[in-house]
Amino acid sequence: MLSHRRLGWLHSCVNSPEHLADVVALWHAVNTAHPSVVAPQTTLLRVQRINVAPPSFGAGAPFFLQVFENSPLGTFVGRLATIDAGAPPGGLVIYSLVAAPGASEAAPLPFAVDAQSGNITTVLMIDAEQQPSFDIVITAKDDGSPPLNASAHATIMVLDINEFPPSIAQVTILLQSVPENVIVGTVVARLEFADEDSSPIFIVETSGPAAGKLDVNASTGEVYIKAGIDRETEAQLEVTISVHNGDGLQPAASTDILIEVTDVNDEAPTFVTETLLADVYENASVGTIVTVVAAVDRDADVQNRLFEFSINSTDPAALRLFRLASPTDGTLRLAGMLDYEEQREYRLEVTAVDSGGEIRSQSGVPLVLAGLTIVCVLIGLPRPAGLFDVGEIVVRVLNINDNPPIFTQGAYEGSIVENTVCLFQDIALCPAPDTIVVVTAIVGSWCPEAACC
Ligand SMILES: [Ca+2]
Ligand SMILES: [Ca+2]
Ligand SMILES: [Ca+2]
Ligand SMILES: [Ca+2]
Questions:
Q1: What is the sign of the dihedral through the CA atoms of 283, 284, 285 and 286?
Q2: Where does 63-159 sit in CATH, by number?
Q3: Nearest ligand to the C-alpha of residue 389?
Q4: What is the pLDDT of residues 86-134, one digit of tens each?
Q5: How far, in Å, is the centroid of ligand 2 from the Cα of 365?
Q6: Rounded-to-integer distance, Cα 340 and Cα 67, Å
Q7: Which of 3.40.50.300, 2.60.40.60, 1.10.10.60, 3.30.300.30 would CATH assign to domain 270-398?
């Protein structure tokens, strides 16, 4: 547009040089004192471009590309697109590629960039085990005047291919044996996995009898207690640990782990029969075996399955009349004379208690068998130091005919009519309950006959 009529200045209204083009200006000059039209003049205004816009890689930097190791030469890796505001000339971009300053990659660089397209491809075989990544600098230079350029940093990650099988390089047994109440999570061994690949994946599996009790942390190689152990069920933990890469391309490696389990006194003696019924005649002699109580202790260790019997009762007569042969012998013998007519039944509490010892739960809290403790509380007995069971013995006294009948009268009188068979009949109580005596005088037999019936 004409910005100064007197001086004839022409100004461009376009700010962006990319929108400028050659223009033809038509103009004429006027004499203001003597206005007369002068023939229009034509002028060609040619716009000369100056390169002011360098190429740009945009806002995506830093860039990350990746390519598998062992890729064939010429494999496409990626392209860093550029923006150049200029139209040719000045908009044609030429790419080049160099190793980043300070990068330690081996020379020569196994990548090249196509100068026109900017495509980055492999020009050498790449080994991820030798070098897992490359740092490069891509430069884009335009053809403007003066030429302008831009550079961007890019990292090319070399993706690993599973070429080598895994192995178990080292096995360190930390605990050759563990008690059966060992805390879950306790580490008993440590394995060291190895693989010549640059980014190996270790898939670890356990098999064998103790696969549910031992497990492996694939990251650390730690073999740890996975679940509670019972020495009475398993004397040792045996597992086979194998490691593979998870894709079936390479064979697995394996090793066997064997950990002994030691016993803890965690089993209480248990009576074979919780309530024993024993019948004994009232005339049984002292020393007669009334019954034999029996209990079992499942603990594996001999010391942990030793136990002793004891009897107790709230009935003083029961304690006086019955004795155990010894604390380790459950034979119950008669220690006094019974009398059915005096007492027909005796009840004894019998306890079997083992050698004790500290028992702790997996969290380390001292442990007692709660159920048995409750039994003790209910029957008012102090809790034994060891693990124990409480049973009951019921002794029933059997009656024998050890008392003669007794006449209710010292003398009997009566009269008899001739031809009468029975002179008189009387019923007398026998001393023993529930029995009676029938006393009958028979003609011709002066002495009455009596019998308990
Ligand atoms: Ca491998
Ligand atoms: Ca590899
Ligand atoms: Ca025991
Ligand atoms: Ca045990």
A1: negative
A2: 2.60.40.60
A3: 3
A4: 555 556 788 999 988 876 655 689 999 999 999 999 999 999 999 999 9
A5: 50
A6: 101
A7: 2.60.40.60
